[in-house]
Specification:
Helix content is 22%, strand content 25%. By secondary structure, the chain is of the alpha/beta class. The protein has one domain: Ribonuclease Z/Hydroxyacylglutathione hydrolase-like (Metallo-beta-lactamase, Chain A, 4-Layer Sandwich), CATH 3.60.15. The chain has a seven-stranded mixed beta sheet with strand order 7-5-4-3-2-1-16. Strands 8-9-12-13-14-15 form a six-stranded mixed beta sheet, covered by helices on one side. β14, α6 and β15 form a beta-alpha-beta unit.
């Protein structure tokens, strides 16, 4: 699998791409192309164009959850599909895979809308919409994890804003949060958006889904932004015991957390333009 970072908070030096506080990764594996999250704007489209990646040939778009920094790029992809169709270009109709709660109305503080700008009904006209809580194998080695069980006592304890469920406004614990896992001969790679379910909870669930306890790499947001001392110390201890091959912690992982994580496992730099390649498990 080849993973290319299209959007992250940071950019790599001497790589003239656009960064923004969001996530978007392009995945190529088993002859298929997938987009994991779409960031906040059209930055991922501009970056993909510079990188020579053709997003008109996507096999699937996967959303890690419904927040604006992961979904507000979707209208720009719809526009690209539509305008390319007007010009007579061949455009695929990829699957759009997400948790059923990814398109619920979400708000936070004085912000009345931090959810996807396009509802599922609109997106279903441009994508083959697949909404499910259960794991879904995208290829022989790449799996969408679905809803993440929350089993430890130090993660996913604090709600972020509000969500509308069945006509009622409730505290939002981001139940729609999910991730991807990819099997390699050396263990699996976990690909997270924000890990609102908890990065340790997510890894533990991925172990069960892929049937392997070895972790080669973890890339994405760890949701360690101003984390409590308890959560951070327990996460560091978890990683120290896990002994992953490397950590590519980014997006919603602050400097304090990165410094602490670096004591537990090899911590690698992440920025727009980064390319990671992993062998397929045969």
């Amino acid at each position: 699998m080849k993973l290319t970072v299209l959007v992250d908070n940071n950019t790599l030096i001497d790589r003239y791409f656009i960064g923004e506080p969001g996530v978007s990764y392009h995945l190529q594996t088993a002859g298929q192309q997938f987009l994991f999250d779409t960031g906040y704007s059209d930055a991922y489209l501009q970056n993909a164009r510079k990188m020579g990646l053709d997003l008109l040939k996507l096999d699937g778009v996967i959303l890690s959850h419904g927040h604006l920094d992961h979904t507000w790029g979707l209208p720009h992809l719809v526009r690209l599909f539509t305008e390319s169709g007007f010009e007579g270009h061949s455009v695929t109709k990829p699957r759009l895979i997400a948790h059923p709660g990814a398109f619920h109305a979400k708000s936070m503080g004085g912000l009345s809308e931090i959810n996807s700008l396009l509802p599922g009904t609109s997106l279903s006209k441009h994508f083959n919409l697949v909404l499910q809580k259960e794991p879904l194998w995208l290829t022989e080695n790449l799996v969408y994890l679905g809803e993440i069980p929350r089993r430890n006592d130090f993660e996913a304890l604090t709600p972020i804003g509000k969500v509308e469920l069945d006509g009622k406004i409730q505290e939002d614990y981001i139940q729609d949060d999910t991730a991807l896992a990819f099997k390699t001969p050396q263990g699996f790679v976990l690909i997270a958006g924000c890990a609102h379910a908890g990065i340790c909870n997510t890894i533990e669930y991925a172990k069960t889904v892929v049937g392997d306890s070895r972790v080669l790499d973890v890339i994405g947001g760890f949701h360690l932004q101003q984390a409590s001392e308890r959560q951070l110390s327990k996460t560091v201890n978890y990683m120290r015991n896990l002994q992953p091959g490397s950590l590519h912690a980014c997006h919603c992982t602050d400097l304090n957390a990165k410094i602490a994580l670096a004591s537990s496992a090899p911590l690698k730099e992440v920025g727009v333009g980064l390319v990671l390649e992993f062998p397929e498990k045969e």
